[in-house]
Amino acid sequence: xxxxxxxxxxxxxxxxxxxxxxxxxxxxxxxxxxxxxxxxxxxxxxxxxxxxxxxxxxxxxxxxxxxxxxxxxxxxxxxxxxxxxxxxxxxxxxxxxxxxxxxxxxxxxxxxxxxxxxxxxxxxxxxxxxxxxxxxxxxxxxxxxxxxxxxxxxxxxxxxxxxxxxxxxxxxxxxxxxxxxxxxxxxxxxxxxxxxxxxxxxxxxxxxxxxxxxxxxxxxxxxxxxxxxxxxxxxxxxxxxxxxxxxxxxxxxxxxxxxxxxxxxxxxxxxxxxxxxxxxxxxxxxxxxxxxxxxxxxxxxxxxxxxxxxxxxxxxxxxxxxxxxxxxxxxxxxxxxxxxxxxxxxxxxxxxxxxxxxxxxxxxxxxxxxxxxx
Amino acid sequence: xxxxxxxxxxxxxxxxxxxxxxxxxxxxxxxxxxxxxxxxxxxxxxxxxxxxxxxxxxxxxxxxxxxxxxxxxxxxxxxxxxxxxxxxxxxxxxxxxxxxxxxxxxxxxxxxxxxxxxxxxxxxxxxxxxxxxxxxxxxxxxxxxxxxxxxxxxxxxxxxxxxxxxxxxxxxxxxxxxxxxxxxxxxxxxxxxxxxxxxxxxxxxxxxxxxxxxxxxxxxxxxxxxxxxxxxxxxxxxxxxxxxxxxxxxxxxxxxxxxxxxxxxxxxxxxxxxxxxxxxxxxxxxxxxxxxxxxxxxxxxxxxxxxxxxxxxxxxxxxxxxxxxxxxxxxxxxxxxxxxxxxxxxxxxxxxxxxxxxxxxxxxxxxxxxxxxxxxxxxxxxxxxxxx
Lengths: 374, 388
Description:
The complex is a heterodimer of chains A (374) and B (388).
Chain A: H1 7-23, H2 26-34, H3 41-49, H4 68-81, H5 87-101, H6 104-115, E1 121-124, E2 140-143, E3 147-158, E4 165-171, E5 179-185, E6 191-196, E7 204-215, E8 219-220, H7 226-262, E9 264-265, E10 268-269, H8 274-303, H9 308-333, H10 344-356, H11 361-371
Parallel strand pairs in A: 1-4
Antiparallel strand pairs in A: 2-3, 3-7, 4-5, 5-8, 6-7, 9-10
Helix pairs in contact in A: 1-4, 4-7, 5-6, 5-7, 7-8, 7-9, 7-10, 8-9, 9-10, 9-11
Chain B: H1 7-23, H2 26-35, H3 42-53, H4 72-84, H5 92-104, H6 107-118, E1 124-127, E2 143-147, E3 150-157, E4 168-174, E5 185-191, E6 197-203, E7 209-221, E8 225-226, H7 232-243, H8 249-264, E9 266-267, E10 270-271, H9 276-304, H10 311-335, H11 353-361, H12 371-382
Helix pairs in contact in B: 1-4, 4-8, 4-9, 5-6, 5-7, 8-9, 8-10, 9-10, 10-11, 10-12
């Protein structure tokens, strides 16, 4: 066993840390939360130049080779700086279905553009009954002479407003698992976006598909064969979200620990009180365990090993531990941390946001139970 | 990064597992349960010598001292196997005192003690706690007076587990009462059969025995002093760090039994394992066991890099022992009334395992530093928080 990052991974981490420190200060994060577009094309281009969008793309498609662990390390830095924008939607939610289910032609068409940062994607999965089960998919894709017609409404589609391509999850047969994926050009007639107002200012959309006609070659993967692909993507996306949380935890510790060393009450630093020290010790325990749960799951995905149990354990654990870590941070910083101008709130909101995505702790514990043979 | 054992490590772990399966006889288990330790009885001595002959008691020690010169990772994995095999097999000599002797003692002392320890021929008992010195071990009162070529020790210890079965006492004693805090303590190895030592049992609510140990003009030869005189507090802290590397597999085994029970037991027409709340509970414990596993093997990783674990040992001990209690509590919640039945009772399930382990687990967050002490250490050493 080896818990250390490789020297290349350390370089990736440090270079991301350095660039984002300069390009993504918390003022920028606040500005983007209010901004309608929610990201800066200038930063997007810089990230593309560094090859960040290419981390999950094989070299044959102009990527830097599929390495989920490297991506997790990068996403941890995104979490540290609360980086806004469509990176996650494009690389993880858009890239993975194409990588997993795409035909040769579809991969050749889309992956090089993802790797180069020239195309933005998103995934339209959830609907009114927001459940990661096939029964939650009611949007239909009717077969036509030339292809398919999509009809229905998707919710919680991230960054739909900037996506060039929407991967849409649709029902193509009445039997339970009759689910398929489609690559949808976001400019097609019949697609209507309505923005949703979110807690942390991330860009989420309702996307209505009204008789949207798409050609037959836009079917992604097997007809009625999407569910196993989606299950895998949900787990990988869950681990990727955990990476953001783990990075966020690093920043929270850097905000909070120096504060309790400096802040004096009753004539001594509040960090000298054991009640506060014990909160801090719990925070460090959450920080360390979150990181290891993340690294283990991401490493297994990278190595091509079975990862269902480890990914589900990771999301269930990190959801709750990161939430507790940030909560304890608020408790010991006190009123100041409750102020909008203090950065802790950014992490509080993002901790909850990430916990809501790609399965709750209960959902993932149920997966763990199944994996245990219960 | 890598979260699997190497093939070579896996092979040895497999060998250990086979050995434990074939050699942990009902007689051995009965004897060790009765004594509270696998060491001390005839079956136990036989078993541990055979086990240690493979180098498995101290795999990461150098070959000259009876180890295999292997990684700490393998050592930690073997400790987990030992714990999983349901024999109480944590050795003070091999796993706490031994590493401290290797780090701090004279060559003469290493020559004398390390090989017999590695062979499983001698066992120590911890001699730290006194009635007035629990969490605050700097407030010891037992005293060793310099008397030429030996010390004369007087005083008393309490909660000295295994003293009734061990050969030697790993004794923390004051050697300079005038010294400043932390600077007047020494570590000594004392033959528990020495004239003037009296051992009185203290029976725990878990049913097993710990002890009071009284010293009345006990003569300890000077060559039984560990390392430098008056440096004992630092050696003790080092040994405590080794003690705080806590194999949780004994509780993982209990967890596995609970899981089997939920599959085999039907209530209202369906197995307990199909009830959503029970599934959630068991999955949560599984996740905590996994997090603990990662904290545990991190310690080995740190040692294998040539560093000494610091706050990380406290974190693992804290996490493991709290998980242990979560497991026994969940066992009680799931078993209901049946959880109260003792081994041998009519209608007892899992041979009274939950009734027994529920009582035992209460001490896990207390000995070797309470959870509060561990959190203090994590905060002070890990985060450098101020004390005033």
